[in-house]
Amino acid sequence: MENKTVPEPVKESTGAKLGKSFGSMFKRLFIREKDHLSVLEEEALQTPTQTVFKNFVRTRLGVVGVVAFILIMLFSFVGSQLRPIDESYQEPALSNIRPGANYLKYPAQIVKEGVKEISSGISYSVALTNEGNVYAWGKQPIYLSGMSTSVFNFPAGFKQGQIAHIAAGDRFWVALSEDGEFYGLGYNNFKQAELPEEAKEKMQSSSVKQLLAGEGVTGILFEDGEIFIWGSTMSTRQDNVPKEYQGRIVHAEFTSLNVVVLLDDGTIGVFGVSGNELSLIPAELTDGSVEVVAFTTSGRAALALDSTGKLHVWGSRLHDILQIPDFEGKVVDLFGGKNNFGVLLDNGQVIYWGANHFNQLAFPKAMKSANYVSVYSDMFQSYAVAEDGNVTAWGHKGFVFGSDQFGRDNLTRLIHGGRISLTVGAIAMIISVIIALFMGLVSGYFGGWLDNLLMRITDVVISIPFMPLAITLSTIVTGRVPEMYRIYMIMVILGFLNWPGLARLIRAHLLLEREKDFVLAARALGVKQRNIMVRHILPNIFNLVIVNVTLGYANALLMESALSFLGFGVSPPTPSWGNMLDSAQSSTVIQYYWWRWVIPGLAVIFAALSVNLIGDALRDAMDPKASEK
Amino acid sequence: MLRYLAKRLISMIPVVIAITIVVFGMVKAMPGDPAAMMINPALKEEQRIAAYNAMREKLSLDKPMPVQYVKWVAATVQGDLGWSAMNNRPVKDVILEPLKNTLILNVFVTVFQIAIILPIGVMMAVKRGSFMDRFWQVFSLIGYSMPSFFIGLSLIFLLALKLKWLPPGGMPISAYGKNFAYYVSWLKYLILPTLSLTIISIAGAIRYVRNAMIEALDQDYIRTARSKGLPEKVVIYSHAFRNALIPISTIIIMSVFAMLSGSAITEQVFAWKGIGHTLVLALNNRDYMLVIALNLLSTMLAITANIVADITYGIVDPRIKLE
């Protein structure tokens, strides 16, 4: 009779088939469904809640939504407990690195050929083997300038097997072959990966003792004790070598802003930026009272070993790097990462201390038993070579989701941003539901002038465009409260602007329900007006509220992200999914640093989509007529 | 019709009054002296003091709040919107350009939106459960779960930066005069924000069009029309669609309204110098007088949209006029 009752043979797509088979598998796993029902079971009554629940489970997408949302909650709330965040932490050296966690996955050949030296940049490491071969692994730092190359792209004519020195800076590395051929790979924006003419001339007369590379700077130390430094030295003046040091340098190391050198009389010299903690060398290291035999540097501090076996440390006290832990044994070697120091003891054990933002202190378990002969630590990665030639790597594995402009881990910020975004959305939603319930119920119940007044207020709020008002209010309100309360103000603003739709809906349904027969029956029975309202009418609009709260929550999530994206929501450094994207308003970020906007964007979509799926499924479950559409 | 319209206009009056009170509240909440912000700071010392005192007098800042409010409304109606510190010009001279840009963007989007959602929504309802129906439902679900800026960023990434077909954002410079080439490049800049907003508004509206059409197709008069032997085309377009137009017009108007609000984000993403973009700029530059004027402007636009909506209802559903 009716057209729609004739089921048309709809060809099923592969996706639908897959979905169905997945659904039936899910059902078989979790819900026991009997094929045959007894008469009693067929006639068994179920409460409305049971009906809704059964209907809900039957809609596959709803279940998918619930599972996805639970996963998101686990990711954000459990994840933020497992992965604590230091909101103020920044590591500019690690900015804008591609997603990848293979920094420590060294090639097997370096073990086979024997490690001569390993040097690490921010996201990659380079090894020189005893056979003179060079291997590089890890992740390519983004290079935007045309003069830069990939750190893995060995230039034509690279003399594998004849390399004598390597040194990795932050985003570039340099190598020198036995016959004096110079190679530079990676960032070259300050010509740090090119050999200057003066150095070339100097190499004719003196042989190279040490090749060194720092943050944008490169240096060559010659056998005659002279050093030549070039690269990004405009602000640090690291190329300004004091005259009295030239000709006396035995060993040199870069820090972020300085160069530390060991002179031939066993004293220490520092140059570069003057007046910082590092240039305040302990007196005994400069007056000749102790003889320094070896030293190493971190980003902003230095560690020296004197001939009596005593350690001296000075520089910035950040990350507790100046506090040498207690240990027993004689120090045979020193090494320093970007924010760490370590020593190798004569019993083959490794002691390491300092910052632990990237698991630098998390030693592999095997390290307790093995005997190590040398350790290479640079930046955030460390490699220890054992007696039998095996290499153990520990430290920074990489950023699974990349890093942002301040070198912060995107994954950690995504987890904590999720916690903030989900909470802000939820509280904003609760506030707006409370207001909507109050407005809707009061105007629907009392009617008359009160109804008129409340509905006019609703009209006003609903007819002001949301975004312009929200960002204006955010500026006015957040300017007047302390930083720590700003996030609550965002919740309040979102809550106070989002209630009118729901309030109207509640009122309309209240008016509809009020005219129904069961209310008339209740009234005939003499039930009090208030009880009719609370016990008879309210439960009937409960479904409506639940569905709209769910859909409204998705909307609140989107609103928060939009507000924070514009810079008027949750303010950095507190992360939220929206403000992780706010730096994406430049085409450089959009094009080259895609992980900085795609990943948090997808997180918002994933969350909003799962909540919308739940909301749609709930609506269908509560109103079976709707699902037929 | 006229009587109906007059009635609707009168019912708008309390809303307009309430909105002006809200905006006046904003003026009072802004940091700084409103009178000082209303005048040109570049005037000479004596002239500035004179202008300041005149403005205080005009706004009656020493009088009680209600008097201040009335004076402020009077000044605003006369076009005395204050001095834009950011542009160093009176506010009323700088708000017309953003208004024009926002209107152009939204008109384009509305036209495209209607041209797309009507045929597709009807098709979805008629061919319920078909592949195309499913496809558009999924599109709609994902589309309205997506932050609008994400669509914008994706379009910039794909069409502007990777394929280099269109400029990533901004507006053309009219330094070389407004010739034909200027208008062509202007259209080029318009494409991405229009596309972005169109996708968002289609995703939000299309499922409602579908549901409205399904509702109409399920009515008894459709069965009658079919049993009379009318061709399916006539049944769908002449009987069902006309009746579905009432809810559909509500949906379109609602989405135009949402667009006015949502275009702030899209304008910001594409640096399209509309009301939203200018507002963000003004807020970041603490140009409070401009902020207030833009808020007033966007609410006035919204109210105009409301009135247009009422007129449309009156045309689409003759019963409304009789009530």
Care to describe what's here?
The complex is a heterodimer of chains A (629) and B (323). Chain A is α+β, with helices and mostly antiparallel strands and 629 residues long. Chain A contains 17 helices and 21 strands. A 3-stranded antiparallel beta sheet of chain A has the order 1-2-3. A 3-stranded antiparallel beta sheet of chain A has the order 4-5-6, with no helix packed on it. In chain A, strands 7-8-9 form a 3-stranded antiparallel beta sheet, with no helix packed on it. In chain A, helix 3 (48-58) crosses helix 16 (595-622), helix 8 (410-446) packs antiparallel against helix 14 and helix 10 packs antiparallel against helix 11 (486-497). Chain A starts with 13 loop residues before the first helix and ends with a helix. With 323 residues, chain B is an all-alpha fold. Chain B has helices spanning 2-29, 34-38, 45-59, 65-77, 91-94, 96-126, 131-144, 148-162, 180-217, 220-227, 232-270, 275-284, 288-316, 318-322; strands at residues 83-84, 89-90. Helix content of chain B is 79%, strand content 1%. In chain B, strand 1 (83-84) and strand 2 form a beta hairpin. In chain B, helix 1 (2-29) runs antiparallel to helix 13 (288-316) and helix 6 (96-126) packs antiparallel against helix 7. Chain B contains 14 helices and 2 strands, in the order ααααββαααααααααα. At the A-B interface, helix 9, helix 10, helix 14, helix 15 and helix 16 of A face helix 1, helix 7, helix 8, helix 9 and helix 11 of B.
